[in-house]
Amino acid sequence: MCAIVGVFGAKKASTVAYYALFAMQHRGQEATGISTADGEHISIYKKKGMVSDVFSQSALDNLRGDCAIGHNRYSTAGKQSTNDSQPVFAKYKLGEMSIVHNGNLTNKYEIRDELIEKGAIFQTDMDTENIIHLIAKSQEGHLVDRIRDMLEKIKGAYCLVIQSRSKMFVVRDRFGIRPLSLGKLKDGGWIVASETCAFDLVGAEFVRDVRPGEMLTFEEGKEPCSKQIFDPDPHPCAFEYIYFARPDSIIDGKNVYEMRLKMGRKLAEEMPAEVDLVLPVPDSGVAAAKGYADGLGVPFEMGIVRNHYVGRTFIEPTQEIRDLKVKLKLSPIKHMIAGKKVAIIDDSLVRGTTSKQIVRMLKEAGAAEVHMRIAAPEIKYPCRYGIDTPTKQELISTRHTPEEIASDMGADSLGFLSIEGLTSSLGTDRTYSLVSFDGHYFAGGNAESPGCSIFL
Ligand code: AMP
Q1: 269 shares a domain with 394
Q2: Residue 31 included in any domain
Q3: In the chain, how many domains are there?
Q4: Which atom of ligand 1 is nearest to the CA of 396?
């Protein structure tokens, strides 16, 4: 779960990449970086921290060239490492290259062991380093062929932007698990980004999504060249719509906010509750709660206030800090809630920490009844395709039924959206990656294999 951007043929490419990363800050807050190419050299600047803190005007000015690639890194639940930021840059036989990657390779450790066996050395835990090694070791004479060589070896979920001193290559895996869109900049040039909300900020026009299994090549003075290098088998990630993406983004033709509204309406059909008010868990549950309230015909109220100066709950790795952070972040409007029967809607239930505290908070605020509703199915399997989920044992729904969880959290009831309810809300015109809910690991890996949140 990261954000990537690639800008080609633009004046001040580093500034365009900066704003795109700023718009996609929600996809990763741990570290950020940009590299640019001016035809002769690649320059890179990356650091831990948020986009607006990391880059100064002079840092952006020093990133020269009309091609820029950038990355926001998500802080995973495991060990944090200062090295693990992107772009990843290398000098190799054909010159210089820089790479950004969003996703998770399912054969990372096989590839890594093989490379280490042959003498390769690694400085980070990132799969991106595997990718750069595979390109550097290929015997092909052109970078594009080396990239194809590398792509034959990797498995799993990836969106890649690779920069040489004069070209830019963009690839989306054949399942199209992670999102990636192509846009055209107003003053000339192209942009690819994980989410279309980046286009809105930089004034780019959306062209289309990068197709699953497609490679785009950008070269000066030429139109972008598209090659379908793998047979597409689209499985866009349902979790992008449920939680991860920004509501104003359009992923594979579907607006995220609208999908969340539909999930909420479906949840009202499947799991109604007799309540006076519907409240969202801000901000992640807002759109689904609006849909749920519309579906029930009950007033929707912003009955819980969010302190916006606290980061996302998941960012802190230890359980104690996570507990405290929910309280730091959310606070109920007592006079609105006291004596009322309320439904509280969140987008997903992972460990159960957030919901448990919210139920307690609402009861302490005097709610007569609290009915928890989750606008996603039960998460029973860790994602191996780029969403940071904890181990199977830590997922509360693998160990407990909804009734047990409700009783543990002190809620009067708990209801989830069904898998069918989710897919019918998203639209039955395509197959989605539902791995966290159904354990169907179609792109490799399994529930026990090391995922993106486990560092060896
Ligand atoms: P938990 O408290 O562990 O049950 O986590 C549920 C909360 O975390 C919900 O409010 C979600 O919006 C949010 N959430 C779900 N998945 C993720 C994720 N992969 N990273 C960060 N937050 C998440």
Answers
A1: yes
A2: yes
A3: 2
A4: 4
CATH number at residue 331: 3.40.50.2020
Residues 179 and 215 in one domain: yes
Please report, for the domain that includes residue 105, its CATH number.
Answer: 3.60.20.10
Predicted TM-score (pTM) above 0.90: yes
Nearest ligand 1 atom, CA 346: 10
Question: For ligand 1, what atom is nearest to the CA of residue 353?
Answer: 2
Domain assignment of residue 207, given as a range = 3-234
Is 386 inside a domain boundary? yes
Shared domain for 271 and 220, answered yes or no, is: no
Do 314 and 228 lie in one domain? The reply is no
Ligand 1 pocket: which of 243, 316, 356, 384 to mutate (most atoms within 8 A of CB): 243
Q: Is the pLDDT assigned to residue 83 strictly greater than 80?
A: no
pLDDT at position 388 over 90:
no
202/286 same-domain check: no
**Predicted local confidence at residue 456, as pLDDT:** 23
**Substitution candidate for ligand 1 out of 1, 279, 313, 385 with most atoms within 8 A of CB:** 313
Label each residue of the chain as H, E or C: CCEEEEEECCCCHHHHHHHHHHHCHHHCCCEEEEEEECCCCEEEEEEECCHHHHCCHHHHHHCCCCEEEEEEECCCCCCCCCCCCCCEEEEECCEEEEEEEEEEECCHHHHHHHHHHCCCCCCCCCHHHHHHHHHHHCCCCCHHHHHHHHHHHCCEEEEEEEECCCEEEEEECCCCCCCCEEEECCCCCEEEECCCHHHHHHCCEEEEECCCCEEEEEECCCCCEEEECCCCCCCCEHHHHHHHCCCCCEECCEEHHHHHHHHHHHHHHHCCCCCCEEEECCCCCHHHHHHHHHHHCCCECCCEEECCCCCCHHHCCCHHHHHHHHHHHEEECHHHHCCCEEEEEECCCCCCHHHHHHHHHHHHCCCCEEEEEECCCCCCCCCCCCCCCCCHHHCHHHHCCHHHHHHHHCCCEEEECCHHHHHHHHCCCCCCECHHHHCCCCCCCCCCCCCCCCCC
Q: Specify the pLDDT at position 386.
A: 87
447 located within any domain:
no
Within-domain flag for 146? yes
Please indicate, yes or no, whether residues 157 and 191 belong to a single structural domain of this protein: yes
Show which residues are catalytic.
2
